[in-house]
Protein: Membrane fusion protein, multidrug efflux system
Amino acid sequence: MFDDQRQAAEPASRPLPAEGRPEAPDRDILDLGRGSSRPEGETARKPAPDDDEGQSAPDEKSEDDTEPEDEEQRPNILRRHPWAFLLGGLAVLALCVGVFFYWLLYMHPYESTDDAFVDARSISVQPKVGGYLVEVPVTDNQHVEAGQMLFQIDQRDYRIALEQAKAQVVADEAAIKNIDAQIQAQYANIDVSKAQIATAEAALKFAQEDAARYKDLAERGSGSVQQSQSATSTLQQRQASVQSANSSLVAAQKQIGSLQAQRASTEAQMARDKAQVEQAELNLGYTTIQAMQPGRVVRLTGGIGAFAQAGQSLSMFVPDDVWVTANYKETQITDMRPGQPVDLVIDAYPSRTIHGTVASVQPGSGTAFSLLPAQNATGNYVKVTQRIPVKIVVKDWPTDVAIGPGMSVVPTVTVR
Structure:
């Protein structure tokens, strides 16, 4: 009954929409005016519980018809919360602007990679001479300074070899002095020979004159033949004396040449023995193995009492001079140049940021310098982005943490 009256009253109170006008705004206007068009005191009556089923069905249908009308009566969410939508839009816009500036300032001018690690020229500590280890004052992972002793080999055998070499040099020096004395004696003999030659030549001249005089007297009959023959014999003796003196002089001179050659040979022997002394000193020095630069001792294998052979590895040595090798994609090094700043984050110490610089960019990919480089001349070819090693140096590494080769690093290079 009440539903029939309501359905009859609604057409009279709702004006018809005009042609061409949107229906949704009219509905909103009608929804706002519908509450005032209902008479005062007119309220909806609930159906009586004792109504029959025929009356309950139309009541349910009328409730379904009123649900869309109630929805049309409520204003949309944009009209109910305009400031919320405005603030939300501004927040989204600010977020987009912030993301853009973050990309522009923190991502766009940087090139980063996780294919990087700490690198160093690890050295194998090997003795140059063999012997028993008598002292090992270091231990694993210990930091040492330049000149600090790492291993000590027994020095007794090498000291004896050094003394023998020095004694041989002393013997060579004595031999040279003896030769020098002989040379001086030969010079004296030469002087004596020269004096003998002068005396013999003077006697020869007198004998020649005496023999000529006696010969002339014998021919004229004033002298005897015996005197002539005696003078001739004396002349021949004087000639032999001159020849003997000349031969002695030549022999003395040749002896000096021989002694000088012997002296040169002894000097060469002494030089060789002096080299043996230097070698013995070096071998003695090689028994003390020292650190050539600051670094850390790792993988220590030599111990006291062990026999170390020449060339045997006793430990590994990692110098303090380490750097970072970053394998960047070839598309990332377009603007990368030496001297550009780099921020390094080591995986072992993620809370620390270490500052470095680009030292150099390898002129070629890592595979190009491998033991077996790729050969793409035959077969199918698949293009793969290559990796270019970039050397990054750090001026001041942190001293309170251990940083060694092989540790993973994430470098970020400022390229713009």
Observations:
- The longest strand covers residues 349-361.
